[in-house]
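Researcher: I'd like a candidate sequence for this fold, 601 residues long. If you have to choose between options at a position, lean toward the conservative one.
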């Protein structure tokens, strides 16, 4: 029986609806049983194509490796011989001139990605081998006349016949880089005894400073932006000296905080005192406590140099005083100074950083809003990144080189799952793996391989196992992986953050060996395999090698795509001989653009 409430709406009597509901429940159960019988007896008739396809794909995945159709990639246009996708001068006009941010990374959208092979320049030759390459390279490999004409009087380089020669000069060291570094070592004794191992050179020229330091046991990342005429980073890598494209502008450099033992600027034209000293704040972030910042050029030694700088002595004095004031406010102290070189040291004690917490202090101490190591498309903040634990990051706390290479850094405990035991296990594992690699690629350890990249390292174990070979390794840590790059730097190695869904910050044909360990297993859900391999082809030198250590599921698919890039590959067992993981040894062939007369070799 129905009733009405005070608004006139009917109210269902609960007792009266109990029986109909029970009857309805019995009817529905019987009907569903009937339908189930129909579908089970006539499953072929009612199965949808979508479901069938999904089941078949799942079954195939469990049975065997990933299979893809063969493909042949075409050649890019000849004018793309120096194509750098994320620092492409053709795209600069789309971005602002403010703080030269147009020179930062601006990668093309997916629909603009190139699916072609970047050709070498006309007349390209296999690079001159190390150590001879430090002093000379083939002109046709880096055919830039502008830098030769503009910098020949400063002895950066000079062209003789088919070669560029590198006398070792520079704007601030016309007498040669060796005498310049000798003076620097007198000012910083730690450069002689293994205390200083890693360095960064901002505005590196042709990387003569970094090249000279290699002979002194110091590993330098030479940094310079992409430009239309100088190609500083390309010259550096052609010489066999570590370098990467980059600029201190609006985004943090792709390095962890408190990592470099030394930073250097030799008249690098960075306006250190402008924008509130924000460029100095980034140098402060990446320099470890107790580390050194070295500056030569304006305004250092302005008393004797101002006439050659098209300025007045008063202006240069003002600039120097402003620079000193900014550095002091950021917890630097003037460490030493002589002639054209001034050295500041980043303080290790906490007393200075505590003062930055006072109100109205500039620059202030950064709050905890941004991780100190966050450095992939992370804006530079106008504040001081204060070290959280000076003891474990300070230069004086680290063992000297080479002892620090195989000593577990304290920062390994900051990594999820990291420990001294995990570090030592990784170190031992890579010694065994590299021994196996040398059997598979006998060129490792010879002058045929100089520039090496570990595309997805953990603690730098691959690089550590190769330190006795005449090569250097750029260790890459994925921006989506646990942050282990600080550990890499603490053990005296170099590296960078990167996302392999994008192009790397380097020129084409700059690495002799690329190594990856399970990269496609880890990143294939984000990054399309085809584009990662095309990027590997872009940065690999002709006749260069790729060691691709992958799960058996991906190996055949990688080999198929590699064949389409004119690579020769063979599949090998790992040192353990297990079936679930294999190694592809690939070599890139030397070929020329179809518009050139030379044929593939």
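Model: Candidate sequence:
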């Amino acid at each position: 029986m129905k009733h009405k409430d005070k608004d006139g709406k009917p109210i269902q009597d609960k007792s009266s609806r109990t029986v109909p509901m029970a009857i309805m429940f019995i009817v529905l159960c019987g009907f569903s049983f009937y339908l189930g019988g129909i579908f089970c007896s006539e499953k072929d008739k009612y199965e949808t194509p979508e479901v069938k396809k999904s089941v078949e794909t799942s079954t195939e995945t469990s049975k065997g490796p990933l299979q893809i159709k063969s493909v042949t990639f075409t050649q890019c246009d000849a004018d793309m011989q120096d194509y750098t996708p994320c620092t492409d001068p053709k795209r600069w006009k789309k971005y602002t001139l403010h703080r030269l941010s147009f020179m930062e990374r601006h990668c093309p959208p997916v629909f603009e990605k190139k699916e072609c092979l970047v050709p070498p320049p006309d007349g390209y030759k296999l690079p001159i081998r190390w150590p001879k390459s430090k002093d000379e390279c083939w002109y046709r490999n880096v055919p830039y006349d502008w830098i030769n004409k503009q910098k020949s009087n400063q002895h950066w380089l000079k062209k003789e016949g088919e070669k560029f020669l590198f006398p070792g000069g520079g704007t601030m060291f016309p007498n040669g880089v060796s005498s310049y570094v000798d003076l620097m070592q007198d000012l910083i004794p730690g450069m002689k005894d293994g205390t200083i191992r890693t360095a960064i050179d901002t505005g590196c020229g042709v990387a003569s400073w970094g090249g000279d330091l290699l002979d002194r046991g110091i590993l330098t990342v030479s940094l310079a932006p992409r430009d239309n005429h100088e190609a500083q980073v390309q010259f550096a890598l052609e010489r066999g000296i570590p370098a990467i494209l980059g600029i201190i502008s609006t985004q943090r450099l792709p390095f962890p905080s408190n990592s470099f033992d030394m930073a250097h600027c030799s008249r690098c034209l960075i306006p250190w005192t402008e924008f509130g000293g924000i460029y100095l704040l980034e140098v402060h972030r990446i320099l470890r406590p107790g580390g050194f910042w070295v500056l030569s050029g304006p305004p250092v030694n302005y008393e004797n140099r101002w006439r050659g700088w098209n300025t007045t002595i008063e202006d240069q004095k003002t600039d120097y005083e402003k620079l000193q004031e900014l550095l002091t406010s950021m917890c630097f102290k003037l460490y030493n100074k002589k002639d054209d070189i001034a050295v500041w040291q980043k303080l290790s004690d906490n007393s200075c950083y505590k003062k930055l917490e006072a109100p109205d202090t500039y620059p202030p101490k950064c709050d905890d809003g941004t991780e100190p190591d966050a450095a992939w498309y992370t804006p530079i903040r106008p504040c001081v990144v204060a070290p959280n634990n000076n003891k474990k990051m300070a230069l004086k706390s680290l063992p000297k080189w080479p002892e620090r290479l195989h000593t577990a850094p304290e920062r390994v405990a900051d990594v999820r799952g990291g420990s001294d035991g995990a570090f030592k296990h990784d170190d031992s594992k890579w010694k065994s793996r590299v021994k196996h690699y040398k059997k598979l690629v006998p060129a490792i350890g010879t002058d045929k391989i100089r520039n090496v990249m570990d595309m997805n390292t953990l603690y730098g174990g691959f690089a550590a196992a190769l330190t006795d070979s005449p090569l250097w390794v750029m260790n890459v840590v994925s921006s989506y992986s646990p942050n282990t790059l600080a550990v890499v730097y603490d053990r005296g190695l170099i590296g960078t953050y990167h996302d392999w869904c994008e192009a790397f910050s380097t020129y084409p044909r700059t690495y002799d060996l690329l190594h990856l360990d399970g990269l496609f297993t880890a990143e294939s859900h984000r990054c399309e395999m085809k584009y990662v391999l095309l990027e590997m082809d872009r940065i690999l030198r002709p006749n260069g090698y790729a060691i691709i250590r992958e799960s058996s599921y991906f190996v055949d698919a990688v080999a198929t795509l590699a064949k389409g890039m004119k690579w020769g590959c063979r599949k090998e067992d790992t040192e353990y001989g297990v079936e679930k993981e294999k190694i592809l040894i690939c070599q890139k062939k030397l070929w020329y653009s179809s518009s050139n007369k030379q044929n593939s070799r």
